[in-house]
């Protein structure tokens, strides 16, 4: 009698299908259902993506999907998005919207599309605006006008007015050493906000030592006053001119050589001349101006309203404020301020029995801007 030992006994077949579907017939039917479910989902997704006509597997003819979903259990609505059965045991998966179906945002509203125009006056030459940040900016360097139509009168505008800078002081004492002080910067009205009115805004840009004005459609006027020139030379020196914004020029001195005080700027008073026991002298520096580029009115750093430097008969003349005010002269005429900066001119310096003129102040400027991108 022999015995056989089965070292590898038969193991129960492991099923990869749901319980109750272990026989081959059931398994085949289950797999068929799953295949059809996945195919139906694929067809439905293509239909929903607008493909409509597709080729069925196995070389069958093309089929046009019916308008209604033939199997509503394949997907369901979830708010404004769709979730679909992906054919793997009933698990739901949200499909991402195709890139082409993403909504395109509306372009930003732009007031310049409403027909706001600006021209030099007289002459009628168009003034083109500049887009700076989120603002459309018009810059006026001469007499001009800006017209706002009724369609744009629903918004607001901002304006910046700069008066003309004062002229530098002249040396007019013919009997003694003399030095004129620098003129002060013009006044600055900034970030004033107005409800836009339908009509024409008339603009007058101040010449050196003159006011800048803007007359609104209702005939009210906004004014930026001018910086003053220094007084005539008295006792061999003069003080710097005052700013139209209220700052004071620096004090001159005649100890150790005549020299003038610096003109006032928008941000600071003019510098005082430096007293010394003996020559040479040091003139007062011009007061600092305001950087309107940093405030979004210009595309880069731009100063307005600086003071001019004081002149000297010998030694070191005062520098103009913020590099736009005129430098003082050393036994020479003063330097003119930068045009359209509203800054003061430099004071003159002279030896006895000589008359020299101070530098011209800078003319004013006007800016008008309105929000373009929201």
Report how far the terminal alpha carbons are from each other. 101 Å
Q: Could you tell me the mean pLDDT?
A: 79
Strand composition percent: 15-25%
**Tally of alpha and pi helices:** 1
* Biggest pleated-sheet summary: 5 strands, antiparallel
Estimate the helix proportion, in percent: under 10%
Please state the structural category.
mainly beta
Total domain modules: 2
Strand order of the largest sheet: 6-9-13-14-15
- Total strands: 21
Backbone CA Rg? 41 Å
Shape: elongated
Poorly predicted regions are 52-102
List the helices and strands in order.
Answer: HEEEEEEEEEEEEEEEEEEEEE
Brief overview:
This protein is mainly beta and 374 residues long. It has 2 domains: 78 residues, no CATH class; 267 residues, no CATH class.
Explain this structure to me?
With 374 residues, the protein is mainly beta. The chain folds into two domains: 24-101, no CATH class; 108-374, no CATH class. Helix content is 7%, strand content 22%. It has one helix and 21 strands. It has one helix at residues 24-48, and strands spanning 53-55, 62-64, 75-78, 81-85, 92-94, 117-120, 130-132, 135-140, 144-148, 156-162, 178-179, 188-195, 199-204, 212-215, 221-224, 281-282, 290-291, 303-304, 315-316, 349-350, 365-371. The strands form seven sheets. It has a five-stranded antiparallel beta sheet with strand order 6-9-13-14-15, with no helix packed on it. Strands 7-8-21-10-12 form a five-stranded antiparallel beta sheet, with no helix packed on it. A hairpin with a 2-residue loop joins strand 3 and strand 4. The chain is elongated, with a radius of gyration of 41 Å. The N and C termini lie far apart (101 Å).
